[in-house]
Structure formats: C-alpha cells, structure tokens
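Sequence in, structure out.
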Amino acid sequence: MRQTVIILDFGGQYKELIARRVRELGVYSEIWPCDAAIERIRDKQPIGIIFTGGPDSVNASGHPACDMAVFSLGVPVLGICYGMQFMSHALGGEVRPCESSEYGTMDCQVDPGSTLFRGLAPSQRVLMSHTDYVFRPPEGFIVTARTALCPAAAMENPAKQLYAVQFHPEVENTRQGRDMLRTFLYDICGAAGDYNMRDYLDRVTEEVRAQVGKERVLLGLSGGVDSSVCAALLSRAIPGQMTCIYIDHGFMRKNETEEVRKAFEGRDLDLRIIDASQQFLAALSGVTDPEQKRKIIGREFVRAFEKAARECGQPAFLAQGTIYPDIVESGKNKSAVIKSHHNVGGLPADMGFKGVVEPLRGLFKDEVRKLGRMLKLPSALVQRQPFPGPGLAIRVIGEVTREKLNILREADAIVRQEIGRSRARADQYFCVLTNVRSVGVMGDFRTYEYTLAVRAVRTNDFMTCEYAPLPHSLLFRISNRITGEVQGVNRVVYDITGKPPATIEWE
C-alpha cells in the first residue's frame, strides 16, 4: 500500500502548493476538507497529516475545524499558519490578535536542537502572513522559533508527534522550508519515498486496462498539455482502442493544428481533425460580451463533438484530461469552489457513454508535464503556455472576425517567440487585440489601426500574479516586430497590472 500524507484544507490559498511540495519530496499527498470524517481518515492510514493555513480566526464563531480525534490517531501532525493556531486553540492554548500583523519575509530565530529544525542554521528567512498568533501554547508544547513580532513562530510536542509553524514552509520565500518539510516527512513520519512518476504510469496503465477492457474510448484532444498527455498515455495503455477528436474551432494559435497532427501521427490511435472554424465564427457573429462568447463556444463545441462521436461509432468510454487542481478548484473534494471546470461534474446523461476515463485526475500540472516527457511528447507541446478553451476568441476584445484572428495569431507568435528565447522570467505570456484603434504614421501615410496589448506575468499558482518586468530592450524588439510585420497594428502597449485587481486573461 502506497504511503500517503493527507492535507486537511482550512481554506488556505497555498493548499495545492503544500501538496505539490510533499509529492516533490517523493511522498504521495491528497487534499481533503478539514471536516473530513475521522473514519475516512483512519481508513486511509496516512503516515502524516498537515493542516493548511486559512483566512479565518479561531476566536470567531463557526471557524473551520477538524475532528478532535485527529490528534489521537497516533499520526504525526504539522500545522501551518492557521493550522498552528487551530492546533493551539483546540488543545487548550490561547490565540490572540497580533498587536502588529506580519506580512512578508521576516527574520526568524529557530532552535536547531528541535526535532523539526534539526541541523538548520539558527537564523532563517520565512514568509509570514497572519493577524493572530499563539500567545500561550498548549500544555506539553515548547516554543521552537520566534520573530521580532511573533514570540511563538513555531511549537512542538514531540511526545505526541505534534508540530506547528506560524510561517509558510511550502513557499520559496521560506529559504529552507523544503528542508523543514523533508524532516517532517522522513524523520518524523518515517516516509519511504515511494512516490514517483514511473510507478504512477505503471499503476494507472493497469487501472485503465482493467476499466476499459476491449472497448473503445473517445477523447476530445484540444492540443493543450493535459489532453495531449492523456492521449499519449492511453495510446500506450490501450493501443488501437482510442479515437481522438480534435475540433479546430478557428481560434488556435499559429501552426497549432499541424503541430498536434505531427505529435500524434506515429502513435497507435485514430486521430480525426475537424475544421469547424466557419461554424464557430458564424455563431459568434455580432457577439461582443465575453461571457456570451464563452457560452456560445461551449455550446458549439458540444454540438461538433457529439456529431463527430456519432460518426466514429459512439465508443463506450469518454476520456478526459482532468487533473487534480480541476477537482480541488471545482469543490469536488468539498473545498471552496474557486472556478468551475468543464471536465468536472459528471457525464451528461444523454451522451450514451458507459463511463469516463480520467488517468490524470490525481496529478498536478508539473507532474503531468513530467509524465508527458516520459511518454516522449515533443518538448514544445509539453511546455506549452496555458491556453483558454475558447482560445484566441477571448483574446480578441469585441466581435470576433477572421481578420482580427489573423492579426492576433501573427502577433501572438512573435510575442511567444521573442519572450521564449529571451532570458526574461515569465510564467505566462501572450497578447490581446484590443477594440481600440488609434492614429499612427507609417512611411508618409496616416494609419488608423488596432492597439495590441502584451501580457506577461509571474506566478506560482495562477491564483494570483504579478506582472513580469520585461527588459525594455525586449519590449522594444517585440513592438518593432509586431508593428513592422503584422498588418493592422500600429501601437503596442504593455499590461503592468497584477491579479488582483485584474485577472491574467482580459476576458
């Protein structure tokens, strides 16, 4: 039986990051709601439990809480931020509001003789983000870290295997946070490090074969990372039993359809590429509202997909590239709903499939990319920039036309090429064709053309972001190329807004 660490979610924004860090250290993790039934937790036989942070105060009525029996399971527990405050409050300690709240990276003095900080330097840089603090730890606990403003930045009770930190060891700002988590997993929980992608691939391959048998499977291949890795995995697990339908709605990036064709032409699957661009453009004629665009594109996609499914004989199973964050964000594990995902929520009753095959539903995006490399997918596809389902249609502000799409497609290729081959650090970058026209001069002639916005952001989780401060020389090169090579654009601007208050995409 594979060792598991359970992450109990108290509403913290870093819950997925905690789970990813644990997996990166070779231990399988799952995110569960904080009020998960104790019987369910006991049945899972976790080697450790981690409490996440959260925005609430333990002194407020109705604050998030777990079953008190968690502390009696004999399983090591690590509380982080709110998780430390909850542990203290639940076990008889006292939590008070901070006289001065701590936000950002702080100097922290830790006891290197403590179990959790063993071998670390006494002075650490850690990320703090809290308005309450542990004023008095519970009986049996000792304080093992402090900052100038927080007298109890960590505490532990080794006899009961209970540990807690007020800071966030899962983020990069906590310089040796990874070492702290490794100590918790291996020295305290006794982890064997039995989780890796090779074992996952072998196990999920057998699970798919057992589920599908000799039946056929249908997959909607979007060309994105998740659906592409799903296709590669299934062609390996059930060769010759899968049909992939690629609906080209006309909103793809430059050369994307041909790149998908080339990536899968040598694999044991039936790939059907359907040009439905005229259907989608006609449906969007005159539409300017972004939400209406999304709904129309979703409706037309279902129609095109159902038609293609009937034409290939209606396979027994539907495959989807659902990944773990889709499950968490859609609230399917009783987490708060961040956003709904089209591929989470069950099959429409009238589609006629026996069931759904989701071989990636337990993986984070970085794990999916690693699996894609193992399955020998092209690097350009595995490392592909995030791309919304409606494609370039929601990067065209206002009505979507073929002319606008062609302008944006060429400009987008330049942006991705220039930033991609530079040394600038950006986690996502693209451009938006605004609905603004402005006067310009090209040669001896007056122009009245579109303004194009470039967007590049830095983010760890895509839940928040900061704009990427690209070098002026790079922005200058991008602007010169777009205005010189793309007909229809005479002005380029750079979006320097973070999330919040903006979103990463414009629509």
